[in-house]
Design brief:
Strand content: 5-15%
Radius of gyration: 21 Å
Mean pLDDT: 88
Number of helices: 9
Bound molecules: beta-D-glucopyranose
Structural class: alpha/beta
Shape: globular
């Protein structure tokens, strides 16, 4: 999946208050109404006014289910225990069986750390029912209600600006209807267990791609469908009354660049409002499957030029813009693989970055009211993308010199990478 497409030298239009001309030697190229880029070449000093229509969410909410329930005030992670998904625990246990000594002990401890479960195919949806039933029973016997953490990840033409995580549905082949059915199936499972709270991250990378990557044909073609699908997802989940959702918002090195903040805020807010301001959409998730630190006093040199060089700086820059536009977003931040910094050659490198370590454990003690929880969203040990250059989903990022190789297909187990995460965990396991 694409984890960063940033343009350091940007001339954006809507909401952009910086310079509106390119330096001599580069030309302004308009990608969309939010986003223009100074590309090297020909006449410098040009100013171009975008002519395309701004990206906004679909405006029809007529058929949207109206949730009758009111979310609990405050942080939805509080007052609950988080369910440990057997799927990841089984992966970790199998991996640990091949290890010995302290590495094995440390590896096994990962199975006890709450990690989101990705529903990246429709075939996996029935397993959610099993997890929810299990969680419901655990909640009843302990007296403390449970949370099941899920990632909704099956858009048609998924991962439109990269190749590694291309999904099962295609827009050209009934993709939107297939996606609606996928959401309906998730909803049918969750409906059976109103006593279990679900925390959902919605569609990693999709909206961020609509902010910065509409110059990629596949993303431009997917724009309307992504918006319709994400809107459907949040409305249907909202109506259940026990699902708190966070829309994926890329990370500091992607939408955190000053030129991208305002276009991003505009897209999130319009989507949220056009969906009817669903009350269980709690906010945004950042750094999902990425490697950035939550806070740091010593910025990684690759972040140079971006004042928002960590996730909290990004969040603190984005939140007020969202708030004033009518989206009072709170945040969760993935730190699952952020234990080691200064390991990337470029901030845009996202694939199995070598030398990574498990990071800060999930906690609601974030020190910041805006941030509900540090979470582990990417199950550490599951691969980001194959390094096999002849594979259909080969993405060049997975062949870079800072990408661990040989690497299997995205989502499948990558034993050597898992062992590195265990050994480099910070704090240590
Ligand atoms: C893959 C998914 C997988 C997820 C979590 C993504 O990169 O495309 O198949 O479920 O990572 O590991």
């Amino acid at each position: 999946m694409l984890k960063a497409q940033y343009m350091a030298n940007v001339e954006a239009s809507i909401g952009w208050t910086g310079p509106t001309t390119c330096v001599s030697g580069s030309t302004c190229t308009v990608n969309n109404a939010y986003y223009s880029q100074c590309l090297p070449g020909s006449s410098g000093g040009t100013t171009t006014t975008p002519t395309t229509t701004p990206v906004t969410g679909p405006t029809t909410t007529a058929s949207a289910p109206t949730g009758s329930q009111t979310p609990d005030a405050g942080n939805p992670f509080l007052g609950h225990n988080i369910y440990l998904t057997p799927f990841y625990a089984a992966e970790v246990t199998a991996a640990a069986a091949n290890l010995t000594g302290t590495t094995q002990t440390k590896a096994l401890s990962v199975a006890k750390i709450p990690t989101f479960t990705w529903f990246d195919t429709v075939a996996k949806v029935p397993s959610l029912g099993t997890y929810l039933a299990d969680a419901s029973a655990q909640g009843k016997s302990s007296g403390t209600p449970m949370i099941v953490e899920i990632i909704v990840y099956d858009l048609p033409d998924r991962d439109c600006a990269a190749a590694a995580s291309n999904g099962e549905f295609s827009i050209a082949d009934n993709g939107q209807a297939n996606y609606f059915n996928y959401i309906d199936q998730l909803v049918a499972q969750i409906k059976q267990f109103p006593d279990v709270r679900v925390i959902a991250i919605i569609e990693p990378d999709s909206l961020a791609n609509l902010v910065t990557n509409l110059s990629v044909e596949k993303c431009a073609n997917a724009q309307t469908t992504y918006l319709a699908c994400v809107t459907y997802a949040i409305q249907q989940l909202n109506a259940l009354g026990n699902v708190y959702s966070y829309l994926d918002a890329g990370h500091a090195g992607w939408l955190g660049w000053p030129a991208n903040l305002s276009p991003a805020a505009q897209l999130f807010t319009s989507l949220y409002k056009n969906a009817g301001s669903p009350s269980f959409v709690r906010g945004l998730a950042t750094n999902v499957a990425n490697y950035n630190s939550f806070t740091t006093n010593s910025p990684d040199p690759i972040t140079q030029g971006n004042p928002n060089y960590d996730e909290l700086l990004y969040i603190n820059a984005l939140a007020p813009v969202l708030q004033s536009a009518g989206f009072p977003a709170h945040f969760i931040v993935d730190q699952g693989r952020s234990g080691v910094q200064n390991i990337r050659q470029q901030w845009g490198d996202w694939c199995n970055v070598k030398g990574a370590g498990f990071g800060t454990r999930p906690t609601t003690n974030t020190g910041v009211t805006l941030v509900d929880s540090i979470v582990w969203a990417k199950p550490g040990g599951e691969c980001d993308g194959t390094s096999n250059t002849s594979a259909a989903r080969y993405d060049y990022h997975c062949g870079l010199s800072d990408a661990d190789q040989p690497a299997p297909e995205a989502g499948t187990w990558f034993q050597e990478y898992f062992v590195t995460l265990v050994n480099n965990a910070n704090p240590s396991l």
